[in-house]
Amino acid sequence: MCSIFPENDEKARTLAVTTEDLDQPTKPGDIVSMKVAIEEVGFGKAQIVILLLSGLVFCADCAEVTYLSFVTEVLRCQWGLTPKQESMIGSAVFIGIVIGCLLMGYVGDHLGRRPAFLLSSCVICICGFATCFAQGPVSLIIIRTVVGIGISGVTVAYDVLCEAVPANHRGAIGLVLEFFWTGGGLWVILCAWLSLNSEGWRLFTALTAVPTLIAAIAGYFMLPESPRWLAEMHREPEAVKIINQWAVMNGKDFHIKGIHHHDGTHGDTLCVKCDRKLVCRFLILIVPWIAFGACYFGVVMLLPRLFETDGKSSACDIKFNYGELLIPCGAEVLGLIWTIAWIDTVGRRWTTCVSYFTGGAACMVLGFRNLNMTILTLAASIGRGAQMAASCAIYVHTPEVFPTHLRAQTHALLNLICKIAAAFAPFLISKEVPQKVCAAVFMSLSFAGGIAILFLPETAGIDLEVLSDDERSTEATSSEEDCRSDSSIE
Hints:
Layout: H1 19-23, E1 31-33, H2 34-41, H3 45-78, H4 83-111, H5 113-130, H6 137-151, H7 154-162, H8 167-196, H9 201-208, H10 210-222, H11 227-232, H12 236-249, E2 258-260, H13 276-306, H14 322-342, H15 348-365, H16 373-400, H17 404-428, H18 435-452, H19 464-478, H20 480-483
Parallel strand pairs: 1-2
Helix pairs in contact: 2-12, 3-4, 3-5, 3-7, 3-8, 3-10, 3-13, 4-5, 4-6, 4-17, 5-6, 5-7, 5-10, 8-9, 8-14, 8-16, 13-16, 13-17, 13-18, 14-16, 15-16, 15-18
């Protein structure tokens, strides 16, 4: 099904919250566009609540992935894992993400952002704790695969926040969310330091699942549906109600009876003939998302192996240099600060490009394991910080180049591609692959991602509704003939 949005056929539809409101005379400001409503509500307590809830899911995502870096090293000895089994355990969560991305994207675009968020957090939480009871590599792989299905909904958590904040806050606030990701990595290192060697991997596993438990419970009671999605689904009364609630929470003297919104299609399958520009953007984004999956997650999982302490009393006495591990993980904070400082001024494209080139160069240094530990620590810090900066900018940029009715699905699909690349990372960093070859692959992918992003449009400071309007206008003017032979045109 393919539809276009001719400007001369657009009609503003006005719906009131209650029948009493319908009987009252319309006053100036009572009926506004979604763009005006979001701008007037601004950024306040309501958006902070969404930020915290989405942040907890991001924290859980990083925690569940970083967790594998430690537990596979421990179980390699306790269970006598082969290198292939060890890599399979590391890849299981990413395989699950691949399976779940289309599901979560569909739920997010068709059933709502809130259901997708709650489903995602509940699956991560339940299966995260269930990992404690795994009795062997097969059961562990199965459980971690299901965890990955839950993690695939993290992109929807970002979309919820992206759609709730004004355009001038969207870049910075989206990046503040990434601090929770770094917090998840630090949380795992702390939990490993407190429990892994003294209490065992099962307690360590339970501790890493705590952030998602909080997210699932708090999200059920506190997370609203996205007003933009509600309006796109022709459910304006609910959208108006949420916007008015946000205004009250933010202390704004702002109240509306209704919103007007374009009467377009919502949830239709992307028509390649009608949306060549969108398809082109999607294909371009595949490259930096592959770089994100392979390079960032590859470096995260590689570092515990680089910083295992020497002098083990036996093959099973595996210890980690937690001080050396904290430094690169903490460097992600610097990468985030760099991105926040530049993403709305220099722009999404160049911030991502410079970050990928910096990260790629640093990754190449990690290929020389015989270097001084100080040099390796510095390279690991720069590499992880730069890869984090690039991936954060990608997360901000991606949903901005697609319209609302396709945002969750396209974001989820690119996340799927990212995690396919990440699923190969454990095999790439395994002891069977020369570390210099691994580093060269990371560098090449990073450079390719940095170049590809330059072919996308810059979206800094542009409202999401304006971006969708541009796509609709383009469809109307350039693709009408291609779609005329398709099914009914609205």
